Amino acid sequence: MSKQYETVIGLEVHVELATKTKIFCSCSTAFGGAPNTHTCPVCTGMPGSLPVLNKKVVEYAMAVGLATNCTITRHSKFDRKNYFYPDNPQNYQISQLYAPICRDGYVEIETETGSKKIGIHEIHMEEDAGKLIHDEWEDCSLVDYNRSGVPLIEIVSEPDMRSAEEVIAYLDKLRLIIQYLGASDCKLQEGSMRADVNLSVREVGAKEFGTRTEMKNLNSFKAIGRAIEGERQRQIELLKEGRQVIQETRRWDDNKESSHAMRSKEDAQDYRYFPEPDLVPIDISEEWLEEIKACQPELRTEKLKRYKEEFEIPEYDAQILTGSKQMADMFEAATAICKKPKKVSNWLMVETMRLLKEAGQEPEDMRFSPEHLAKLIELADAGTINSSVAKEVFEHIFHEDVDPEKYVEEKGLKTVNDEGALRETIERIVAANPQSVADYKGGKEKALGFLVGQTMKEMKGKANPGKVNEILKELLK
Fold it and tell me: Could you say which EC number(s) this protein's record lists (predicted)?
C-alpha cells in the first residue's frame, strides 16, 4: 500500500501599516512616488541619524493583536537583526525578537470541513527594506529606498494549516480584520500584504514534522494556492524517491507554475540579534491598553450577525456586504439616510457588483457617495423615475458620482404620469398594431408585453410601466 502524506503549513504574513509617515522618521509612506523621493538620513541609514518611534505603529499593532485574541506584551522592545543586502541601507533591520508586541493568539476560520482555530505564535513590529529593481537592458540593479522604513507588522502563525483552502481562509480572515481596523488596505498586488509559506510534508500519523521550505514572491491568493499545491507535490515526489527535502528558501514563479531554490536556510542562521541601542523599551500602561480596546470597531463576525437580525438581510447578501469594509460602510451610510436596508442591499448586490466586475475593480475602488445612492432609491420609490431610468442614472452615479435629482431634472428623465398624454400615445400604438391586438384578444399574453414595449419606446422610457399596463388592458377590453 502506498504511503499517505499530510501537509503541514505555517505562514509569516507581513502587513504594511496605514500610517502617513514611516516607523522611525517623518517621511511619507505613500505608494508610487518617484524613486528615492520619500527618503531622509534616517531611512537611508546615514551615519549618526537616530530613529524615533511612530506611536501610531504601536497602536495599530496592539489593535491587530487584540482583534486576533493575542496577549499584549506590556514591556516590549526592539532588536537589531544584522544582515547585508543592497536594499537594506543600515546593514541591519530594526525588528523584535525577544519581546514582540503580541503573542499567543488565534483566529477562527470556516472551511467546508467546519470551523478551526489557527494559532498565532506572535506579532512583531519592524521596518521594511528598500526595493531592488533589476534592469536587464543596462545589466545592473537599481535601488529605491522609498519603501525603506515603511512600518510593518509580521504575523507568525503556528504550523496549524493542512491545506491551501485553510491557508486562504486564514489569510482572508486576517485581511478583513486588518481592513476593518483601518490598520492597512492589505492589497496583495501592491505588496501591502505579503505572505511567506512555510511548508513540510510527513506521513499521516507521524508525530515529527518533516523538513520545511519557505516560499516567497506570492502576490495573490491564487498564486498562494498554486504554490502550496506545487511545493506539496515536489516534496512528496522527493520522499517517494527516497531523497531528502532540503531546508531552503524558494521563489515561486507564477507564470511557470514552479519554484526554484533561492538560498539554503539553516535553523542556526545567525543574524547576530542584539537589543536596539537607539530606542527605549515600550511600556504599555493599563490606561493605554484600555484606550485601544475602547476604540476597537465592530468586526465582520459581529456585523454579519447584526445585519441578519437588525436589517433582515439574507445570509448570502450579508456575506457579500460584509466581505469588504468599503461595501459595509456604503450599505450602512446609505441605509441611515433612506431607511430602506433591503433596497440599498439590492442596489449594491446587483448593479454595483455588475459595474465593478465590468470595470475590473474591487469594492475598495468605489468612488460614489452613499447620499447619492440613497437619493436615487427615494426617487425610484416615489415613482419620480421608473426602474429602467433608475439603472441608467445609477451608472452615472457609479462612474461620475452625479447628484441624481439634478441629473434627472437636467436630462428631463422624470416619469410621465399624466394620464391624458399616456392615453393619447397608447391609443396611437394600439391603432398602429392591429395584429398584436388580435393576438392578445386570442389569448396570447406576450402580445401585451410587445404593446407595453412600443409605448415605452415612444415615451423614451419615461412612462410609468404600471400605468401603461393599466390603460392598455382597459382599452383592449
Answer: 6.3.5.-
**If DSSP codes are grouped into helix, strand and coil, which group holds residue 435?**
helix
Q: Where in the sequence of the chain do the CATH 1.10.10.410 domains occur?
A: 419-476
Q: What amino acid is encoded at 36 in this protein? A: N
Helix (H) or strand (E) segment spanning residue 324: none
Widest distance between CA atoms in the chain:
95
Helices 387-400 and 404-411 meet at what angle, rounded to 10? 120
The 10s digit of each residue's pLDDT in 341-377 is: 999 999 999 999 999 999 988 888 899 999 999 999 9
Question: Of 236, 193, 200, 237, which Cα lies nearest the Cα of 215?
Answer: 200
- Coil, helix or strand at residue 250: strand
Give the DSSP letter of residue 150.
Answer: -
Q: Is 477 exposed, middle or buried (0-12, 13-18, 19+ CB in 10 A)?
A: exposed
Instruction: For residue 47, report the phi and psi dihedrals to the nearest 5 degrees.
Output: -55, 135
CA–CA separation, 239 and 201 (whole Å)? 9
- The three grid cell numbers given for residue 94, joined into one nine-digit string: 530594526
- Residue 461 amino acid letter: G
Q: Write down the architecture of domain 419-476 according to CATH.
A: Orthogonal Bundle (1.10)
Question: Could you give the angle at which helices 164-181 and 55-67 cross, rounded to 10 degrees?
Answer: 130
Q: Are strands 151-157 and 71-72 parallel, antiparallel or unpaired?
A: unpaired
- Distance CA(157)–CA(160), nearest Å, equals 8
- Please, what is the end-to-end C-alpha distance for the chain in angstroms? 80
Helix (H) / strand (E) element for 293: namely: helix 286-294
Strands (E), 50-101: 71-72, 75-76, 79-82, 92-95
Residue 226 exposed, middle or buried by CB count within 10 Å (0-12, 13-18, 19+): middle
Q: Which three cell numbers stand for residue 349?
A: 448586490
Q: Which three cell numbers stand for residue 217?
A: 514572491
Yes or no: say if 99 and 73 are a contact pair by the CB < 8 Å rule. Answer: yes
Closest CA to 180 of 332, 71, 343, 334: 332
CA dist., res. 236 & res. 12, Å (int) = 23
Low-confidence ranges of the chain (pLDDT < 70): 1-2, 263-269, 415-421, 442, 460-462, 464-466
The whole-angstrom separation of Cα 462 and Cα 418 is 11
Whether the CB-CB separation of 17 and 153 falls below 8 Å is answered with: yes
Q: What pLDDT does residue 417 have?
A: 59
- Say which amino acid occupies 108: E
Question: How many CB atoms are located within 10 Å of the residue 184 CB?
Answer: 21
